[in-house]
Amino acid sequence: MNSDQARQRAEHIFKQALAARDSRTALAGYEAQARATREKIVRLKALRLAKEPQAQIAEPTKRSTTDGNNNKPRHARRDN
Questions:
Q1: Are the beta carbons of 72 and 66 closer than 8 angstroms?
Q2: Alpha carbons 68 and 74: distance in angstroms, whole number
Q3: What is the mean pLDDT of each run of 10 residues along the chain (80 residues)?
Q4: φ and ψ at residue 73, rounded to 5 degrees
């Protein structure tokens, strides 16, 4: 093996090591972002669930003016 081949082989090994390190770094960043997203979802869900009963107490339910079939207001039937 001459010096040019040894240099090319060493560069190839070095590039492989860099790629492996970069992929580990990228994976760690992805995992950290996913963990932060899951924690945020849990926190927001807890806030929403705590807020919902208070909103129901504050606002009594309103009676609907629809017939329940197609959510259009009821109208008196007119006979011609």
A1: yes
A2: 10
A3: 89 92 91 96 94 74 58 63
A4: -60, 150
Type of residue numbered 80: N
Quick one: CA dihedral 16, 19, 23, 29, positive or negative?
A: positive
Tokens found for residue 34 = 């996913």
DSSP codes of every residue in the chain:
--HHHHHHHHHHHHHHHHHHHHHHHHHHHHHHHHHHHHHHHHHHHHHHHHHHHHHHHHSPPPPP-B-SSSSPBP------
Q: Looking at the whole model, is its pTM more than 0.85?
A: no
> If 0-12 CB within 10 Å is exposed, 13-18 middle and 19+ buried, where does residue 52 land?
exposed
